[in-house]
Each structure stands twice: as structure tokens, then as C-alpha cells.
């Protein structure tokens, strides 16, 4: 019987959410690991696009940044930064935006800017990067981040990237053309927006995780889906492939 | 005064001394790749002050320049140490004003990229689908909206960026100062063409620029100075010359976290030059 960490379960679950043949705009960190795992398993035809302008890249190790040389070496096409955002993302050519964040709220709005007030923050985060337009323009968005009470809040301190705004219909009113976040995959389970309220509800828990555990790490009254699923545990193949992924230039 | 092609190639200290002035709006570009570290270090050594530093991803190079007290203001879209964590010198300047207070003007990548495009195109602003529903427009006065005259649709507008000086690093130049760069292209072409003055550092000078697939060539006549700076992008990388030093990016975290360690690093930078 194999064992795994909560992070490994999260990355495996996130990789499963990507389908073969999709075109995926990948954020660095957890999303990049999960997308590269998916490409080695069930989705060999997954097209990876990074904001550095690398289109159809097939790195044999994980990049540390979104612009590592390994992404350029293995890319089908290399374009400049204005072009990747204008011609490829803004035009609606990307199926899935794969994001992470420091804070997410009940409507899946994401904060990567500040904790606290903008002018006098308690923590200054890196900022927007490509995320606001990825969240706006991809056909759908998948978020992967660790579920902690300080990160899963009722309302984010700062809206860096819009999820479902303040509720149903907001994306349309704002002129956002993609569907927005369809799934949030954490180290405890999976949350999805309720079709009526657009609020994130718990639709799956990972093996050995209780609903109470998830609720205790969520900053709003988390609704539980009537047909709550239990995530299938990682297979031997998923785990061995994940553990075999090496980051460029980093000793294991 | 007319630009004479043969005078374009000069030393980096000379280029910085003549073309980068206190109080200038300065853009050092290079998106993870070809980051002009040698030029950033030279600006630190020459003690430039009150600069408005513009860059999509401030990275270690601006963490160092901010820590050294070169900057009054930072215009940016993502301020972190990629894959590692925070830029602690930038955070310290914002939170505590050390060594000098730092203002910020914050955008998204798409916004910054389009600001350079507008600047390079001789337009006052650029149009994009962006920022709708986010809180940045409340804090950044170079973000606004514009109504499409054809469809009536409301879109985001961002003010053009026209730096006083743009500095980029490239693989090579010929003896006339024509520059060739390839690999991840970033926003360097736009940043150079948007600027009033441009400095390029290169890995080497060659007799002839043999064509490379997908390369950008910047003609000498849009540049003011070309300086040879071997490994001038390290610890970032120069495609075809050397790899990104990911260990150095990780090691910077420890130095950046601590004012004393950073000050020791800064002292060493000055000593290495003399």
C-alpha cells in the first residue's frame, strides 16, 4: 500500500482535471507541476502555453520560472510578451487557465496583491503578473492552492483576478468572456461554483479527509454538495511519475 | 547631433555615465531571459538616484537597485523572485522606506506590455480587454477606460510608456552596433523602440550577424550605445550562451532578507569594480 502527502494528492487531482488536447495557459508553481504531470500521463497532447511566449512547450524537467531556457528549447513557437497576451490569450484561443493564489474567496476571486490595505499592507505579495487577463479570457479557469483558513476567506482583501465577482451574472456584466473558475483543487478536496449562487461548494474530499477538516480551513459557511465524491487515491503510476519530476538546476 | 554608427560601441561605464541621469525614467527589460544585470550593477556603482524604475518583472536586478537606493518609484506588474519567493529589498523599501521611500505604480503583464506597444507605436495609450472587475484601476492612474467608437463597447485603456532610457541585453552585435537577440523575446523590442535613449549590452561583438530563426534585430540607428558585457545577464541567462543559475536565485533570498547581508553584498559589488 503506497502512501502520499496532501500536496501530492492535490497535484495529482489537479493533473487529472486537464484533458488531452486542451490548450492550457500555465501559471508557475503548483499549476506548472500539475500540467507537466498530466502531459506525462493521460494527456500527452496537452498544449502548454506560458506567459513568456512559449507555445506548445514540452520541457523534460520542471522550470523554476515561467521563462526558463528549457521552455524555449522545447517550444513549438516562441512569441513576444505583447503577442502572447493580445493574439493568443485575449483573442480567446486558450481552453484552460491554470492558476494559483495567496487568497481566494467564496466567489473564487483571487488575490495575489496584498494582505490588508493596499497602501499599508501587512504582507506585500508579488502582484498581478498575467493572472487577471488569464482569469478573464480563458474559456475556463482551474485554480490549485493549499486550503488554509487564512487563504480561503469570505472576501479577498484585494481583487487581483476576478472569479465570479460578487455573484451570478457578474462576469457577463463586467464583459469577461471566459466562464471563469470551474474548479478549485486543494490539498483537502475539490470546490466548484454552485450553478445558481456561483458560490464555491465542496464537491469532493480527498481520501481520509473529513468534511469537518475542510470546513475548519474555510473562512465561510461552506456548503457541501449533495453528491459529495471521494477523490480516487493516486495510482502508483501517478505517484512515481510525479516523484520523478525534477526542477531545472535544483538538487533533489 | 547626427548619430555616427562607428561610435555606438563603447564601454558600459561610459554608456551609463552619458545616458542614464539622476531622476530619469529607466526601463531594464528582459522577461526572465536576457535580464541586463551587468548594466543594473553599473547603475548602482555610479550611484544614480531618484530613478523611476520600469520593468514588468522587477526580479533580482531591481531588488538590488532598490536596496542600493537608486529608485524613487517602481512601475511594474509582478514583483517576486520567480519560483523562490519575495523580493525582500523591494518589500523593505515599501514597508519601511529603507534605504529610501519607494512609490509604486502597479499594472498587470498585459497592461504593461500594451503600454510599451503604445509607446513604441507613437500612440498616447493602448486598448485592451483587461482590469475589468479588479481593484488595480482604483490605485493606478495610468489605467482608465475607453469606449469603442464602432461598437460602443467599453474597454481598458492604459497610458503609453516612453522611458527616458531603456537598457536591454542581447546575445551579440556586429561592429556597426546592429544587435541580434533570440530565445524568449519578452518585451525588449517594444521597450527599446518606446524609449528616448537605448543602451544594449551584448555577450560578444561579431563580424557578421548570421541569421537565427525567430531572432529580433535592432538596427544600430535606433540605439545610442552598445557595450560588451560577457555574462552580462547572469544569474539570468543568455540563450545559446549560458543557462539560468537557479541556485543563485535561491541563494539571493537569504541575502535579500537581511539588511546587513545585503549591505555586505553591495560593498563587494563596489570593491569588485575597483
From TrEMBL, chain A:
Gene3D superfamilies linked to this entry = Glutaconate Coenzyme A-transferase
What are the GO MF terms of this UniProt record? Answer: CoA-transferase activity
Top-rank taxon, per record: Bacteria
Q: Does the UniProt entry include the keyword Nucleotidyltransferase?
A: no
Sorted alphabetically, which keywords does the UniProt record give? Transferase
Q: Which Pfam families match?
A: CoA_trans (PF01144)
Spans traversing the lipid bilayer: none
Q: Which family does it belong to?
A: Belongs to the 3-oxoacid CoA-transferase subunit B family.
Query: Protein name, please?
Result: 3-oxoadipate--succinyl-CoA transferase subunit B
Q: What is the lineage of its organism?
A: Bacteria, Bacillati, Actinomycetota, Actinomycetes, Pseudonocardiales
Automatic annotation (TrEMBL), chain B:
Identify the InterPro entries for this entry. CoA_trans_fam_I, NagB/RpiA_transferase-like
Keywords assigned: Transferase
Which Gene Ontology molecular-function terms are recorded? CoA-transferase activity
What Pfam families does this protein map onto? CoA_trans
Family statement drawn from the similarity comment of this UniProt entry: Belongs to the 3-oxoacid CoA-transferase subunit B family.
- This chain belongs to the protein called 3-oxoadipate--succinyl-CoA transferase subunit A
Which species is this record about?
A: Pseudonocardia hydrocarbonoxydans
